[in-house]
Write a structure and sequence with these properties.
The protein is an alpha+beta fold. The protein contains 9 helices and 4 strands, in the order ααβααβαααβαβα. It has a 4-stranded antiparallel sheet with strand order 1-2-4-3. Helix 1 crosses helix 7.
Length: 196
Amino acid sequence: MSLVLDPAAQDLLFREARTANTFSDEPVTEEQVQAIYDLVKYGPTAFNQSPLRVTLVRSPEARERLVPLMAEGNRPKTSTAPLVAILSADNEFHEELPQLFPHFPQAKDAFFSERPVREQAATLNAALQAGYFIVGVRAAGLAAGPMTGFDFAAVQKEFLDDDHTPLMIVNIGKPGEDAWFPRSPRLAYDEVVTTA
């Protein structure tokens, strides 16, 4: 059985897409970011909890605060990308559940009254949403450079608060010269999928 999605779209989103390491200086507009969000917000999360939060690093001052917190090899990429997004998990996502899960508003207290439970749920579901976000960036015809090479505690202190846990930083823009490393191997179907 073949996929329903057009092969060109499959290539754009997956087969030809790779992590970008250089970017052109073409700006990423607010309209593009809004379009990305308006697409990826429909990706599923448990209880529709939607804990991903996105902090856009646009100003030169904010960029100057962020770059030193990146791993040394990531600093040039982050300093030159047209847009940088800090993706974090909102550990107080349960406050939105009466709106987001209206057919069972009691879920807020029934399942998520304890902070450790919320943190675990927020991390898992925001990570799902981070994956959707990367695919959404690709769907907008842009390249994404997701990274976890940074000082998590320092990024949280500088840009977030105690209720938000940083997950990754994503450089966004049109790819520049020599943007791609060679494609790394992938596991074969029978190495991943088993039948019980």
